[in-house]
Amino acid sequence: STLIRADYDFDQECYHWKTPAGQRRRCWLINRLDSPTSGILLIALNEAISRVVKHQFAQHQVHKTYYALVRNRPDKDRGIWEDFIPKHADYRQSRHPQSVRAQTQFKWLAASRSGPPISLLELCPITGRTHQLRRQCQKHDCPILGDQTYGDFPFNRSMLKKTVPKRLFLHAARIQIQYKLQTK
After folding, report:
1. Which residues contact 113 (CB under 8 A, 6 or more apart)?
2. What angle do CA 21, 24, 25 make, to 5 degrees?
3. CB of 140 closer than 8 Å to CB of 79
4. CA separation, residue 163 to residues 65, 84, 118 (Å)
């Protein structure tokens, strides 16, 4: 489905439309999520705010919090995962994929008391790499449930038989930005 039903202006990097009253309106999409990830998207209705917040994203000044249901439990209850992961999502097609440093602060919150070994993790990416959380969870033996790319495929199939939602269990729950309102 479509989040915004409007034309996109590549020069101004915004969506635009006309209201029923004929007014021209614009909005700027600030962040994005991988299509299977649920959660918060920021949309600015003001170009100046859009520029400020996008700059904060570019400077890694935005704090994001995700929650994930994963198989297994991390070795520690909390910490920082520091890994080198392939720079591009299509790394499997390259003979010599370029790697980049990825850092994620993780915290184990809860685990299932019976049945399959499932844990709830809080994940706060420090760097912002393509599929970073999904890749790092898989690398640390905690693949996210429902991940069709980096997950534990046999485990996902067995869980699909037991659960109703057929989706990736990764949710962007919080985005913290700093913004000072300028007054005249």
Report:
1. none
2. 110
3. no
4. 25, 33, 13
| Buried/exposed 66-88: b ≥16 CB within 10 Å, e otherwise | bbbbbbbbbeeeeeebebebbee
Query: Residue 63 carries which side chain, given as an amino acid letter?
Result: H
pTM for this structure? 0.83
- Which residues are marked as active site? 34
pLDDT digits (tens, 9 = 90+) for 30-48: 988 888 899 999 999 999 9
CB neighbourhood size of 169 (10 A): 21
Instruction: Return all residues near 5 (Cβ < 8 A) that are at least 6 apart.
Output: 17
The residue behind tokens 């039903």 is 5
Contact 172, 40 (CB under 8 A): yes
DSSP code of residue 158: H
Residue among 139, 141, 133 nearest 168 (CA): 133
Does residue 134 contact residue 144 with C-beta atoms inside 8 Å?
yes
CB 112 within 8 A of CB 56: no
At residue 84, φ and ψ (nearest 5 deg) are -105, 125
